[in-house]
Specification:
The chain is mainly α. It has eight helices and two strands; from the N terminus they run αββααααααα.
Length: 212
């Protein structure tokens, strides 16, 4: 089973819905967003997005990225993320863009990256594990990169933000430091959990196909 090619439309929808439900559950359970105490939050919600993008393709990745973005936006409105609450107070529409657009792009691009690796660059079942790992890690790294770039574009010059961080130059240092921490932690989580889940799913699919 690779990017939905052997799945029926119903199976595709069911798996996408299950992964979306997992994202929502992780958000409301408090497991998906982990506050660090330094004004930013580490998230593991890219893992279901990466799994869906690898298993089902870029379209499913974009859908799951949208769900992820909506949960991120929900934490802002519910007061669960200090940074999100601050951004929402400055500009609701900019906050919507920062929460949604990077996650949609990441889900879509993760699917494209795996498709390119699995179909053109790294061929054969022996390289599947490497493809899973690279695609999973790319989801976490791109999520951090796109989010902080969007944060800089839409809020980097805002007086309320630069005053809070001590000036625009300090803002660049801040997002660079926090982005680095986020990227490392989330990349490791995606690498381990994302790769393991996709590998197990594909192994089971191959065993089932062999027994039919």
């Amino acid at each position: 089973m690779t990017q939905g090619k052997k799945l029926s439309k119903l199976q595709y929808m069911v798996i996408t819905a299950v992964l979306a439900a997992i994202i929502v559950f992780l958000m409301f359970s408090g497991l998906g967003y982990i506050p660090t105490g330094f004004g930013f939050t580490i998230t593991i919600l890219m893992i279901p997005v990466a799994i869906g993008a690898i298993l089902l393709g870029p379209g499913a990745g974009a859908i799951l990225g949208t769900v992820f973005g909506l949960t991120s936006l929900a934490t802002c409105f519910l007061g669960l993320d200090a940074l999100g609450v601050a951004l929402l107070a400055i500009s609701p529409w900019k906050t919507v863009i920062v929460c949604l657009v990077p996650r949609i792009l990441v889900g879509y691009l993760c699917g494209l990256i795996f498709k390119a690796l699995n179909g053109k660059i790294l061929k054969g079942r022996k390289t599947d594990l490497l493809s899973y790992g690279i695609a999973s890690v790319s989801a976490a790294l791109l999520n951090t990169l796109f989010f902080f770039v969007a944060l800089w574009i839409f809020f980097g010059s805002d007086p309320a933000v630069t005053q809070y961080t001590g000036g625009s130059s300090n803002f660049f240092v801040l997002i660079g430091a926090l982005g680095g921490i986020n990227a490392i932690v989330e990349a490791v989580a995606c690498l381990i959990l994302g790769t393991a889940t996709v590998s197990y799913t594909h192994l089971r699919a191959h065993e089932t196909a062999a027994n039919i």
